[in-house]
Amino acid sequence: LRYALPLLRADRGVVLAAAARDAESFEFAAPELKDDASFVLQVIEEANSKRSSSSSSSSGSSGSGGGGGSGASTILRFASWDVRHDKRVALAATAADGASLEHAGESMRADAEVVLAAVTSDPAAFRFAVGDAARGSKAVLLAAMAVVPVAPAVVRRAAAARGAGVARGAA
Question: Is 110 helix (H, G, I), strand (E, B) or coil?
Fold first, then answer.
């Protein structure tokens, strides 16, 4: 898409096919497509279905995510500000790849449901959560601790810090 004419960068079929093959190409999609939450959701779903089918059929190959990161994370990174704050998009991206939480809008990084989807997919995504609702959610903390042996130390520190803040606020 980088060298495509603007007309092709705005073509849904072309962008969908390009991003499914290489998520990095979504950077060059027309702004109106990056601002369409339904289309971005479709691109995330298509990129992840291609990525999962290629990783299951070809072990040892690099997959279809393009440069670095997963398709969902890369696509969310290049989506518009409004789309990165769309809960449907954030849930789809974080369920596919918890690290996508890094590129979600701040309101989504503070949403306990979105953070839970991210942490269930990748417990290390907890570091991208913001706000008491997400970082103080029992379900989020339990999900982060249940999946990865390294996560409990991170989660305990966050819970201790939250508890200290609550204790200070109560005094």
Answer: coil
